[in-house]
Design a protein that fits this description.
Radius of gyration: 13 Å
Structural class: alpha+beta
CATH class: Mainly Alpha
Order of helices and strands: EHHEEH
Low-confidence stretches: none
Mean pLDDT: 85
CATH architecture: Orthogonal Bundle
Number of helices: 3
Number of strands: 3
Shape: globular
CATH topology: Arc Repressor Mutant, subunit A
CATH superfamily: YehU-like
Largest sheet: 3 strands, antiparallel
Strand content: 15-25%
Number of domains: 1
Helix content: 40-55%
């Protein structure tokens, strides 16, 4: 049985949340946007987590925690 669960961002420590968000930002920002202030991007992503447009998912199979778009998670659950 595959277990994937949503982790509320509030349950993470500030340090863990910042690290996760920073990794997400780095993976999403294109080369042309590298000069953008990473702290601005982190604030934007945290805002999207608060609005539940982005969610934090734990995958038991991979033993990973990732930030994903809500639409992508819903699409995956329908397949």
């Amino acid at each position: 049985m595959v277990v994937e669960m949503i982790i509320p961002y509030q349950e993470l420590s500030q340090e863990a949340l910042f690290g996760l968000v920073k990794d997400y930002v780095i993976s999403q920002v294109s080369d042309t946007e590298v000069d953008m202030d990473i702290d601005i991007w982190v604030q934007k992503v945290v805002g999207l987590l608060k609005k539940k447009e982005l969610l934090i998912e734990y995958s038991e199979v991979d033993e990973t925690v990732m930030i994903k778009r809500k639409e992508d998670m819903l699409k995956g659950s329908l397949e």
